[in-house]
Design a protein that fits this description.
With 309 residues, the chain is α/β, with parallel strands linked by helices. The chain starts with 22 loop residues before the first helix and ends in a 25-residue tail after the last helix. The protein is globular and about 50 Å long. It has a single domain, classed as TIM Barrel (Alpha-Beta Barrel), CATH 3.20.20. α10 packs parallel to α11. An 8-stranded parallel sheet has the order 3-2-1-8-7-6-5-4. It has 11 helices and 8 strands. Helices cover 34% and strands 14% of the residues.
Length: 309
């Protein structure tokens, strides 16, 4: 994942500390009903990684079996494959057959809808997309809506109209990338207040080069966090520690569900950091998430950077 990647910068000089919660977040979490127990879903953005064979997949695992083994390690996936190609029902049924009860696929809208049509004149494409992903049935998590990065605040009406065209039983989370959404407080509040009224969740993306996207504004009682690490640099671990503290706070405040997806600019090392995250969550938040087992436990010095002890 290249979004938010910085080149030639000393990462230790970047202020990675999470900002305080936006005032709107506290108001959302205070609304009734307050969840007595928070649901947590943690995963990566891909399962089709041959370089995970011998790491989290058994030696000699075939590509067709990657998803089955991935689903034994994690309880969710940020499904970016549906962005690059329109999914079809048989394909979705095949993926569903590889996972167990409780596993959640969180598919991204296909680029034909978000990037080529830019959310206009999409009814036929939307119907085709939804018909396919409905085949996930109880394994379907929220759908990830990422409008084209060039869609600036003047596109709010278009975005709103598209969201309103999606059936109400479909759970949505939206990520906006154009910097102008974050440059003006009034613009930001107008947009995120609109998403709250539409009951659309707000994606928070934590990347080195786009700290504005760490906006800490929840619009529903659910959070969708996309964490972009830097190859197991020491700051990856301190950032995760900060996120665990924030998720503990939200849990105490009654948040319903948290989705946390681990990215790296080089996805090779996502499982290691996801394992660290889950261990910290189990210890600090009291979750009982399964800690992914490695075929070979990564040794210090095997990654681009030494890991934090």
């Amino acid at each position: 994942m290249d979004f938010g990647k910085v080149e030639g910068t000393d990462l230790s000089k970047i202020n990675f500390k999470l900002p305080p919660d936006h005032p709107g977040t506290a108001k959302v979490l205070a609304k009734s009903p307050v969840a007595k127990k928070t649901n947590f879903y943690v995963g990566c953005a891909k399962w089709g990684r041959p370089d995970w064979v011998g790491k989290i997949y058994p030696p000699k695992t075939k590509a067709g079996d990657f998803l089955e083994h991935y689903a034994k390690k994690f309880n969710s996936i940020e499904l970016n494959a549906t962005f690059y190609r329109m999914p079809y029902k048989k394909q979705i049924e095949g993926w569903k057959s590889k996972v167990g009860k409780g596993f959640k696929f969180c598919p991204k809208f296909v680029d034909q809808i978000t990037h080529l049509r830019r959310l206009k004149n999409t009814k036929e494409l939307l119907d085709e997309f939804l018909e396919a992903i409905y085949a996930f049935e109880d394994n379907l998590g929220p759908i990830f809506l990422m409008p084209h990065p060039q869609m600036a605040p003047k596109s709010l009406e278009t975005i709103q109209a598209f969201i309103e065209s999606v059936p109400k039983d479909v759970q949505l989370f939206i990520e906006l990338r154009h910097p102008d959404w974050y440059a003006d407080k009034t613009v930001f509040d107008d947009a995120w207040n609109t998403f709250e009224k539409l009951k659309t969740g707000s994606v928070i993306t934590d990347a080195s080069g786009r700290r504005d996207c760490v906006h800490m504004r929840l619009t529903t009682k659910e959070a969708f966090i996309r964490f972009v690490g830097n190859g197991l640099h020491p700051t990856d671990y301190t950032r995760v520690d900060d996120w665990v503290k924030r998720m503990k706070k939200w849990t105490d405040e009654g948040i319903k569900t948290i989705y946390f997806f681990m990215h790296q600019h080089e996805e090779l090392h996502s499982p290691e950091l996801a394992k660290y995250l889950i261990e910290k969550m189990n210890k600090e938040i009291g979750t009982s998430l399964q800690v992914p087992e490695f075929v070979k436990v990564p040794a210090k010095g095997e990654s681009l950077f030494d890991k934090k002890k």
